[in-house]
Amino acid sequence: MPAAAPRSRRKTTPAAAPIAPKVGFVSLGCPKALVDSERILTQLRAEGYETVQSYAAADVVIVNTCGFIDSAVEESLDAIGEAMAENGRVIVTGCLGARRELITDKFPNLLSITGPQDYSGVMAAVHTAAPPQHDPFLDLLPAPKNDAIGIKLTPRHYAYLKIAEGCNHKCSFCIIPSMRGKLKSRPVDDVLIEAEKLVKAGVQELLVISQDTSAYGLDLKYRKRSWHEREYETRMLDLCRGLGSLGAPGARPWVRLHYVYPYPHVDDVIGLMAEGLVLPYLDVPFQHASTSVLKRMKRPAAAENTLRRLEAWRAICPDITIRSTFIVGFPGETEAEFTTLLDWLDEAQLDRVGCFTYSPVEGASANELPGAVPEEVKDERLARFMEKQAGISAAKLQTKIGRQIEILIDESVPEGVFGRSAADAPEIDGRVILRANKKLRPGMRVQAIVTSADTHDLFAELAV
């Protein structure tokens, strides 16, 4: 064996940097699924994976699916099919993943299928398909700081804050509990810690989401936790108190509540809105107004007198904005029941409303109900409903002309400056189109005077 070369003559060649595995990612569905996508992407980045924008460049593709209604199922299956055709190495996760046979019948060669919020299952499948590369230098780097917030798929100035998974209700048209399980609340201090990190990172609006925000903490028996040397119960009211304390006085982030059922204890939260601790805005999924339809829907709080509750909320906080969603054409819906809904709209005077025609969902008990409503009748009722609500919305926006409001800037482009008021949730409500003679950046909050309005949007100019 030849002698070793003298040390002084040895040549050291730097090791080539390992090539990071590349992952393509498709995110579908509601804000709750968006939060799941953010968590998966954050874990991928922490483990050294690189995300890419094309199927061709990816070593593996993850599709986070939605399976709530038939149109969402078709969109998810189309996305899976496209990823299989363009790449062929596909991992499926999300709500549709709970319906494994439906997926495998169409795509038997998928690498993995997992259900919603199964982060460890997704990462295990990624590790098998594209193992992470060991880098001795990167592996010695310190752990991320405590205030790191990970990857966000929303703009920098707002973020969804998911406080719970699953749902305990058994609504006849919904299969969410079979996909996401029963209610599983996050401890209140965990939520407040995450919210504080987001605010420190520059987030100006926190959008609180879950399947049933009013039920938050019920499964934990409202367990008490400590945050900043103060005790909080894991319940909606205390969570809102904590969120309302974030940030400096006068510059606190907006806190917007979604998917709030009209239970009596919500009245206490309206008081916090009147104090300015959370936005005077509630997204309440009423779904219908006819008692008989609500009974067939197996809706919680169906016996509540919602008109009286709305009146009480407005007495506590006159500026409150109420948005809701409704279903028309539910099995057995008669013309009289639909008329009840229209009459209720006249009395309720809701600010923001969405409406859908009933669509059967595989596995939902409503499919077994008699009295299917013909598609043409559904469409005709939808048109009448939206015409009624358009008049209500337009009239309510007209009352804001001349008022000074705070606007959160979303976008500043050559075509104009677009923002939202406290009455407008991103992507589902209207906008404020602002005339400004100075540069405004996304995330800025400014005061403006409303100059005009149409059916959905406000027009304003900067206040002097």
Describe the structure.
With 464 residues, the protein is α/β, with parallel strands linked by helices. It contains 12 helices and 20 strands. It has a 5-stranded parallel β-sheet with strand order 2-1-3-4-5, with helices on both faces. Strands 16-17-18-20-19 form a 5-stranded mixed barrel. The longest helix is centred in the last third of the chain and has 24 residues, at 375-398. The protein starts with 21 loop residues before the first strand and ends with a strand. Residues 1-17 and 136-147 have low confidence and may be disordered.
Low-confidence stretches: 1-17, 136-147
Distance between the termini: 88 Å
Tally of individual helices: 12
- CA-atom Rg in angstroms: 25 Å
Strand order of the largest sheet: 2-1-3-4-5
Biggest sheet architecture? 5 strands, parallel
Query: Taking all residues together, what is the mean pLDDT?
Result: 88
Helical content band: 25-40%
List keywords for this structure.
464 residues, alpha/beta, 5-stranded parallel beta sheet, 5-stranded mixed barrel, 12 helices, 20 strands, 31% helix, globular, disordered N terminus
What's the SSE blueprint?
Blueprint lengths: L21 E6 L3 H16 L3 E3 L7 E6 L4 H17 L3 E5 L5 H7 L5 E2 L5 H11 L28 E5 L1 E2 L10 H5 L3 E2 L2 H13 L4 E5 L14 E4 L2 E4 L2 H8 L10 E4 L8 H10 L5 E3 L7 H7 L8 H11 L4 E8 L6 H14 L3 E6 L17 H24 L5 E10 L2 E5 L11 E4 L9 E9 L4 E5 L2
Parallel strand pairs: 1-2, 1-3, 3-4, 4-5, 6-9, 9-12, 13-14, 14-15, 18-20
Antiparallel strand pairs: 7-8, 10-11, 16-17, 16-19, 17-18, 19-20
Helix pairs in contact: 6-7, 7-8, 8-10, 11-12
